[in-house]
Prior knowledge:
The complex is a heterodimer.
Chain A: H1 12-33, H2 47-78, H3 94-123, E1 132-139, E2 142-147, E3 180-183, E4 185-189, E5 194-200, E6 205-209, E7 214-218, E8 224-228, E9 234-240, E10 253-258, H4 261-271
Parallel strand pairs in A: 1-5, 4-10
Antiparallel strand pairs in A: 1-2, 2-3, 5-8, 6-7, 6-9, 9-10
Helix pairs in contact in A: 1-2, 2-3
Chain B: H1 5-8, H2 14-19, H3 24-54, H4 61-66, H5 78-114, H6 122-143, H7 172-201, H8 214-246, H9 271-305, H10 312-325, H11 341-369, H12 378-401, H13 403-409, H14 413-443, H15 449-476, H16 494-525
Helix pairs in contact in B: 3-5, 3-6, 3-16, 5-6, 5-7, 5-8, 5-9, 5-14, 6-7, 7-8, 8-9, 8-10, 9-11, 9-12, 9-14, 10-11, 11-12, 12-14, 12-15, 14-15, 15-16
Amino acid sequence: MASGSGIGKVTIPGAVLGVLLFVFVLVSIWLSVADRFWFPDLASEHGGSVDTVYVVVLIVTGIAFVATQLLLAYIVTRYGARNGEKAAYWHENARAEAILIGGTAVTLTVLVFLGQYVWYQIYFTDPPEGGMVVEATGQQFQWVFRYPGDDGVFGDLDPTLVAGTNYIGLDRNGAGADDILVVGQMHAVADQPVRVVLRSTDVIHNFHLPHMRVKQDTVPGMSIEVWFTPTETGTYEVACAELCGLGHFRMSGMLIVDATQAEFDQWLEDQLVFQ
Amino acid sequence: MTTHDEHAHPELGFWRKYIFSTDHKIIGIQYIITAMAMAVVGGVLSMLMRLQLGWPGTLWPRLEEIFPVGFAGGAMAPEFYLSLVTMHGTIMVFFLFTAVLTGGFGNYLIPLQIGARDMAFPLLNALSYWTFLLSCITILGALFAAGGAPLGGWTAYAPLSALPEMGPGQGDGMTLWILAIALFTASGLMGGLNYVTTLLTMRTKGMSMMRLPLTQWALFITAILGTLAFPVLLAAGILLTFDRIGGTSFFVPAGLFTAAGAAVEHSGGHPLLWQHLFWFFGHPEVYIVLLPAMGIASDILSTFARKPIFSYKMMVYSMSAIAFLSFIVWGHHMFLSGMNPFLGSLFTLTTLLIAIPSAVKTFNWLGTILGARIQFTVPMLFALGFVSTFISGGLSGIFLGTSASDIAMHDTYFVVGHFHLVMAVAPLFAAFAGVYFWFPKMFGRMMNMTAGKVHFWISFVGVNCVFFSMHAAGVIGHLRRIYDPTQYAFLEPVYGMNQFISISAFVLGAAQILFLVNFFASIWLGPKAGVNPWNATTLEWTVPSPPGHGNFGPELPVVERWAFDYSMPGAKEDFVMQTEAPTRVESS
Lengths: 275, 588
């Protein structure tokens, strides 16, 4: 058999696969950058940095994706079999491999540090002074929000007190006397940090505010805190993002971001009649 | 151990030869066909899911006749949808991929490719298969349990999985699920011990470890992974069972109550313990599926590139590195679980570390086909499809492995698209490549290659339409495991996409019927295959198709070289068998 070197034959299946891969890369780029396939509109302060990490990872992996898929497309198109001809016989190239491994390692290291910078800002930074606190309790299949009332302290909970609209077993004696319970609706004030204390009374749920880039499991037996600062007034959806049972899909709620503290106070006062 | 003596009296009856066999080849084929049957069930479940997601709320009176409970009133019930999610995931991960790649190809290929007459423990091997079959029946039984199949997902997060009162299907259905998984892990352990022993002790003369085909290296490493990871899942399942029926509280804390206000009588457990145990098994499981696929794809790429595998040593080292690292990345499934966020940083680091050996493998596959003379056979097309989908799915994993961007992507269809491409489509393509490639050896006949090509082209376009679109839906925010996305206004942009994905999925599903028909028809009707129809180099291609009991003739083969001498300069043909002595090659 003749020794092969250089390019081979362009075959029909090779060319078809090459063209398909090329088209696939174009469509992938469109899917990745087109507005209609983008995140829900951003409405929180830290959310911009989450989106930035995503964009940086998109650029880095995008380059790797386009380069490798197009190389694959090129190879399958240009290196088809030709009758009676051998392929090239080489199977080591330590230098090329060292460069590729080194390049990958450096790129990934940069991604780790960038991502962790944002991660630390979100999880290891205390909320600024003067914000509000709200407790969000997940239970099959609703969100129960609790504001601590004038004393700023949440009352005790006791599962044996669960009855009627007291969905979380709030003890109305002591600090719990002025707590305000609201099912399915949470209010916050624009540009004021909100600290959310997450709890669950049955299974794992996930407190998800798509527009705020907030997503955190609520775990029975644990009390987990997250905080965010809404930047835009409006009405936003609250979702459950962790499978919690048959009603998981409808375990939604509303977050209303008020423009002023006065509006918020008024809403809170309106809730008193339901307590 | 099997000796050559058994080869002398091959006249076994039908039942001993094909059903209660201890021959590794029959057991391998039994695994493959059983896994195919399970795949049909798992596939149908996914089609029903796509029906609901594409057209939520639509009435299907015909389906109500088939599923009177699941479609009561004509529309799919939410709990039915969730049990589809749970059973599809469970069946595909365990009963298709793990079973077909390690049980099927592992059993069939290990003795044939290393020059042994059978596995080290043939009876244990048969026991492993029958335990697997029992686990298949048990998991299918969960579909018919009172209250329906479990609805907590294949990850079975506690306390949803620990407390039967938390949902339909969490009673008997969940109990059967745990039992099936326990039987499966027992079967996997028997297989794994057998593979490791066979590969270490029964290689023929000249078959050093560094002369093994990459499929064998992959199976060896996978068997070690399985032997270490399966017991953890088994232990977790036992603890979960104690919580469910023994009154213990490993995974359930105090103070819980049901939606009806009834107190739950547990205290002292922690839900995250289940997640740690599950994912300590679960992430190695990803590689239990992926490594054999990588090995099979590597060997097939080299064969039809007619070119040696690029950097064999790095292929072995990178698989070993992936296997080791796979035990220290499990926390990337738990970034938002409530575990200490400091661990999130640590697991981001280890997760991106594992991307390095994965990148090495991709470079080496591309290096293998660069400068090649590619023969576009059906197995090669699927192996190339494996490379492409592995690249896509592997890269999208970086968004999820970076904890900060995972805040946006976690529990969305981005995750669903990612893991399907990388641990379902890529291994499936490798498995298809393997079936088309070794079918002539298994049954002595070729599959129909025109049908195979149609199967490939539809599948390759189809998987990208389905799973790449899912990534985009995930960025928009489409949550996974939700029965009806129209409940959320912010998901409005995905409604139309869901219909596109569903229609693509139906076409993709239909193309698999073509494969099944081709497979079974070719067993009896395919053209006869020769000893070495692909001009490949490894030992199984030196014996008749199908090989007799005992695999090799009176003498075991002696191995003279590695498995990748394709297009060697000076050789007469463009391939040199592993048994060819150096002196016999030079005559050009």
